[in-house]
Amino acid sequence: MALVAQLSDPHLRDDGADPFHDPAEALLLAFTQIATMDAKPDAIVLTGDIIDRSAKGYAHALPLLRQAPVPLWPMPGNHDDPVGFRIAFDGWADFASDHLSYIAQIDDVQLIALDSTLPNGCPGVDWSRLNWLEGIIGHSQRPSLLALHHPPFATGAPHLDNPGFQNADALLHLVKGSQVCRVIAGHSHRAIQTIWGGCLSSTASAIGHGLSLSLCGTQRHKPVQMAPAFDLHAIGPEDLVSHQITLGPESEETAPIRSAYQGNDRQVVSEG
Ligand SMILES: [Fe+2]
């Protein structure tokens, strides 16, 4: 069984103009929670929007991410810069040549990290990515976790569903009946669950700000204050359970480790 922590959408800024809480602090608090769990996750999957569009690059994000207490698998979102991402995370994963998808092993589960931001910035997968995925799925004998930034399923929220996920039907065709047993995504900044492709499929709450919800589409979605949270997925032949962990005030148990992280953080910042 693999135990996977899914963190999403920190939107790390480098100008200090966060609309609500500091996502860097929330990220480090999530690392602290993960480090102190009695059953420590095998890995962290970070499902995109690592930086905010306002950020000039990844120099402010990398020192934070290197403090992850377990292996961290970074994925790009629509706020990330594909060229900068590939350079910044060179060596973190074996990226495909013409998109930022990759596979990795997490215990006995195969992670399929599928880059869902098309070159034009829209959500979806093109034929290059579908062909890549078909090759992966066709050879996989292990239960697989499919991770994307954009949810490939309809959410019922117009601001997420329009424009829709390009080639969602072709992706669904590949996933159905495959070894993919769980689908996770970000982008929504909200917790959403559904069944898609025969799999439990979900989006995670954000480490960064929340987003408002309008199911009728009469109100434009906007950043809102929301407690940062992350998901914990147990994935195995006989286990398929997810928990949402909301990041609240630190406990006495986590305070010493939190202090250690703050010390590292200050040291990194002082290095410029
Ligand atoms: Fe986002």
Q: What is shown here, in short?
A:
This protein has helices at 23-35, 62-65, 82-88, 127-139, 158-161, 168-175, 255-270; strands at 2-7, 43-47, 72-75, 102-106, 109-114, 144-148, 180-185, 192-196, 199-203, 210-211, 223-224, 229-236, 239-246.
Description:
The protein has 272 residues and is of the alpha/beta class. It has one domain (2-270): Metallo-dependent phosphatases (Purple Acid Phosphatase, chain A, domain 2), CATH 3.60.21.10. The protein has 7 helices and 13 strands. It has helices spanning 23-35, 62-65, 82-88, 127-139, 158-161, 168-175, 255-270; strands spanning 2-7, 43-47, 72-75, 102-106, 109-114, 144-148, 180-185, 192-196, 199-203, 210-211, 223-224, 229-236, 239-246. A 6-stranded mixed β-sheet has the order 4-5-6-7-9-8, covered by helices on one side. A 5-stranded mixed β-sheet has the order 3-2-1-12-13, covered by helices on one side. Strand 12 and strand 13 (239-246) form a beta hairpin. Helix 4 (127-139) runs parallel beside helix 6 (168-175). The radius of gyration is 18 Å and the shape is globular. The protein starts with a strand and ends with a helix. Mean pLDDT is 91; it is low at 260-272. The site of fe (ii) ion (FE2) has 7 residues, from loops.
Question: What distinguishing features does this structure have?
Answer:
disordered C terminus; Purple Acid Phosphatase, chain A, domain 2; six-stranded mixed beta sheet; 272 residues; alpha/beta; binds fe (ii) ion; 24% helix; five-stranded mixed beta sheet
Order of helices and strands: EHEHEHEEHEHHEEEEEEEH
Overall 3D form: globular
As laid out across the biggest beta sheet, the strand order is 4-5-6-7-9-8
State the separation between the terminal residues, measured CA to CA.
40 Å
* Overall pLDDT confidence: 91
